């Protein structure tokens, strides 16, 4: 069978026609493209999951300091908060997402999901669900294939680049991927997964990319936590039976249109938003004035 798809509607048609989950369609697609077996494809995804887990452990235990020095140990501190207002599962998702994003900011090893700047959202949400509901690694691997399908659709029909579409295209896409994966883990249908993805993307529509000093640190790390919590909420809303008015494909198109309409100052250039505030500019001047800022192994 041909498991190629370019829209969410195509994907749902394949799931219905062949009685497959989104994960199964995505695995078969990868097998067709790479000429590998399903076991080999899943084994590779399991390796990706292991890297995500290692990044989480490093972020929560070592609290690495970012290259620019703007963030350090935020995920660990949030994880140690005795009584989080948003409750244990959401707080852990946020802390895990922040911790992994901090590993990225410290030049550590992560999995771009879909980008390095949004790398904490998906694993933060998934590891939080696993912690609360006991999902094993095999279930998380299948969920990653669901998220991959959503990421593929967004990249095919819009963008996952902050420089092209703002942070809505990075953290927003990551949150949509996570929402779909969470819905799948909780037994939701393929249609429900795409509805959750649509809602997550709608909730972050228009989010600009305004990194202080041009570094993936502030507000990027905190926005990873927002993306993870948004995914939990979006999945819960859909699983409760509440419908989503605007379907996934139309939402992706709208996101891309919004991204294209954003000023270049709000698309990763560090020229607008909070990156243009006096405090941010002072921090930028301080960071780049120091010769020792250049990370080891990197030249000008």
Characterization of this structure:
It is globular and about 60 Å long. The protein is built from 13 helices and no strands. It is 62% helix and 0% strand. The model is unreliable at 296-300 (pLDDT under 50).
For the record, give the distance between the C-alpha atoms at the N and C termini, rounded to a whole number: 50 Å
| Count of all domains | 1
Q: What CATH architecture do you see?
A: Orthogonal Bundle
Portion of residues in beta strands equals under 5%
State the secondary-structure class.
mainly alpha
Following the backbone from N to C, one meets helices and strands in this order, namely HHHHHHHHHHHHH
| Biggest β-sheet description | none
Number of DSSP E strands: 0
The residue-averaged pLDDT reads 96
Radius of gyration, taken over Cα atoms and rounded to an integer in Å = 19 Å
Key structural traits:
0% strand; 2-methylcitrate dehydratase PrpD; single chain; 300 residues; mainly alpha
What is this structure, in a nutshell?
By secondary structure, the chain is an all-alpha fold.
């Amino acid at each position: 069978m041909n498991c190629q798809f370019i829209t969410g509607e195509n994907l749902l048609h394949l799931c219905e026609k062949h009685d497959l989950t989104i994960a199964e369609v995505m695995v078969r697609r990868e097998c067709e493209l790479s000429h590998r077996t399903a076991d080999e494809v899943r084994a590779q995804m399991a390796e990706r999951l292991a890297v995500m887990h290692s990044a989480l452990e490093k972020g929560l235990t070592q609290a690495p300091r970012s290259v620019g020095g703007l963030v350090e140990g935020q995920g660990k501190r949030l994880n140690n908060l005795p009584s989080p207002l948003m409750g244990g599962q959401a707080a852990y998702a946020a802390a895990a997402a922040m911790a992994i994003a901090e590993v990225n900011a410290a030049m550590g090893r992560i999995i771009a999901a879909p980008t390095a700047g949004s790398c904490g959202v998906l694993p933060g949400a998934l590891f939080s669900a696993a912690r609360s509901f006991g999902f094993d690694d095999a279930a998380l691997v299948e969920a990653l294939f669901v998220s991959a399908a959503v990421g593929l659709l967004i990249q095919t029909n819009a963008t996952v680049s902050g420089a092209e579409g703002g942070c809505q295209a990075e953290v927003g896409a990551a949150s949509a991927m996570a929402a779909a994966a969470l819905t799948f883990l909780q037994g939701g249908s393929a249609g429900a997964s795409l509805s959750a993805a649509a809602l997550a993307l709608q909730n972050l529509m228009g989010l600009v990319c305004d990194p202080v000093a041009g570094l993936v640190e502030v507000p990027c790390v905190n926005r990873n936590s927002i993306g993870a919590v948004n995914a939990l909420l979006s999945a819960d809303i859909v699983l409760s039976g509440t419908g989503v008015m605007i379907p996934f494909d139309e939402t992706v198109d709208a996101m891309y249109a919004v991204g294209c309409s954003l000023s270049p100052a709000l698309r990763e250039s560090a020229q607008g938003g909070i990156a243009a505030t006096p405090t941010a500019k002072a921090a930028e001047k301080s960071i780049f004035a120091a010769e020792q800022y250049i990370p080891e192994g990197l030249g000008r």
